[in-house]
Model the fold of this input.
Amino acid sequence: MGDTKLAEDRGTDTSAASDTAALIAAAVAKETEGLKANTARLLEENTKYKATLKNFEGIDPEKTKAMLSHFENNEEQKLIAEGRIDDVIQRRVAKREESVAQQIAEAQAEVEKAKAFATRFNAKYLQGELRTAFPTDVHQSMSVPLLRELEQLFTLDEEGNVVPKDGAMGKSGKALYAPKEAIEDLRGQYPGFFVNGNSGSSSFQGAGKGGAKTISREKYMTLTPAEQHDAYKNGITVVDR
Done:
């Protein structure tokens, strides 16, 4: 009878142990299912996060932050908030292009100004060089007309030397045509340019003796070189009227 009682107690213990194991297994299964669900959710969110990150590949966060800090304009901030980044970029590019265009225009204006100055300087320098070739018998009043004739023939090269525009050689054939040689050629064509030149007949001969003492500059510039020389020789004064 004692053996029977022991067997019953063992059966009871086995049944209780089985029930406990079942409860533990159920609790573990429940927790495991929860962990599996959380893990699946986290994996799904991680996948979405990675997909989102691909849109920002190659973008420096610090540089982006610094760039955004410059968007102080309320309108641009509004566009950014609406996700219209392209519109903001286009606005900035257009503004930059306008600034660059203005800078280019200002630079071109400076270049043109420098060119104009260089042209005036070269003209003055050429005139100075040509005047050094004037002989001593050039009439003072004829220096400008003579200078104009020479300016038609000569220019400056890149090194600032006076050279003939057509590259003609002088009579010696060993050097370029020079201003002094040109002046001697002009002597025969415009004798009135020179003190000892043959002035020929002119209505201004004797004008200083009881005749007109002045002539307007406009009228004077219409005269031939010989007539201008005669006017000077006969004491006619050129005046502005």
Notes: Confidence is low (pLDDT under 50) at residues 198-202.
